[in-house]
Design brief:
Layout: E1 5-10, E2 25-26, E3 29-30, H1 31-42, E4 47-51, H2 55-63, H3 83-96, E5 103-107, H4 116-125, E6 131-137, E7 146-148, E8 154-156, E9 173-175, E10 179-183, H5 184-190, E11 198-202, H6 214-230
Parallel strand pairs: 1-4, 1-5, 6-11
Antiparallel strand pairs: 2-3, 5-10, 6-9, 6-10, 7-8
Length: 234
Amino acid sequence: MKGKSLAIITARGGSKRIPRKNIKNFCGKPILCYSIEAAKQSAVFDEIMVSTDDKEIAEIAKSAGASVPFFRSKETAGDYASTDDVIMEVLKAYKETGQEFDTFCCIYPTAPFLSGTRLKSAMELLDTADSVMPVVPFSYPPQRGLIITQNGWIERQFPEYATARSQDLQKIYHDCGQFYACRTKAFLKAGTTDVENLLPLVLSELEVQDIDTPEDWELAEIKYNLLKNREVMQ
């Protein structure tokens, strides 16, 4: 990996389902700190910054070793702003100060399973790709999925696969929701990290946990402690 690299950690103050989620205590420290520590441990970034609209989050971020060179705008701090909107704002703000980066990695603040090793691997993949996304296989084939109709009956979403063996179905993956690594030029051209030359970084289910509800949070802590006890986190 050549050129300058930027780690962008997105951590706005608003959170409806889990209040103050981005700095809520997770197994002993604010969950945001795990993302900052993983970025530092990777040793591949020229700068690690946190994009936030919140003063408390900014202070925690700086105490953990990240920079907060500016605050997020009102537009990108709202409920409907996309991750791509935040990235674009950050890159433009840096450019206005005379700083440009060849590659970047947008890291979510609620990714306690993320490791420096994984981030380093992702950034190294940018030598042969324009973007990298961590993915995990669905634990059950989506082709065998069921739906509940308006009348309350169960129907098969894809009846053509009703008798297909699971092992014969195409494996389908989903976004882990941890980070996106991308070449800046490709991002600016497409306006998104979801570009054409997109490579996967396949993770195991033990390394992945959505954290959108209080129940998700509890599961994440259980899984994190399990991994820590087994010492299998890479």
